[in-house]
Amino acid sequence: MRWPRCAPWRLEVLGPPGGVPTDDDQATGLEREVMMAARKGLDPYNMLAPKPASGTKEDPNLVPSISNKRIVGCICEEDNSAIIWFWLHKGETQRCPNCGTHYKLVPHQLAH
């Protein structure tokens, strides 16, 4: 098979003609940065679900925040359709007023 005439850089960037480029080949900018970080196990833009904790005083659910307080919603029970909202302040762990699950505010630095 003879390759069509094209600039040499085109073959390096796009690969052989007729192939389907992968996500890695097509990703640019922020999307590429997020993909590369995910490969290393990082989450620079807080896009992934938080790691589950037991919710006890010794192992509270960690809530990242760039300020000294944040509103938290607790579902309390798996089948519950109502969300219990409350303010979480920097410092000691705090409990959900309904079910008693513990939460703790932790500082979070923005990726930018």
From TrEMBL:
SUPFAM superfamilies linked to this entry: Rubredoxin-like
InterPro entries for this protein: Cyt_c_oxidase_su5b, Cyt_c_oxidase_su5b_sf
GO biological process annotation, one example: mitochondrial electron transport, cytochrome c to oxygen
Keywords: Acetylation, Membrane, Metal-binding, Mitochondrion, Mitochondrion inner membrane, Transit peptide, Zinc
Subcellular location field: Mitochondrion inner membrane
Binding site for Zn(2+): 74, 76, 96, 99
Modified residues (N6-acetyllysine): 51, 69, 104
GO function terms (MF aspect): metal ion binding
PROSITE patterns: COX5B_1, COX5B_2
Superkingdom: Eukaryota
Gene3D superfamilies recorded: Cytochrome c oxidase, subunit Vb
GO CC terms in record: mitochondrial inner membrane; respiratory chain complex IV
Annotated TM spans: none
Transcription regulation among keywords: no
Entry protein name: Cytochrome c oxidase subunit 5B, mitochondrial
Species for this entry: Rousettus aegyptiacus
Species lineage: Eukaryota, Metazoa, Chordata, Craniata, Vertebrata
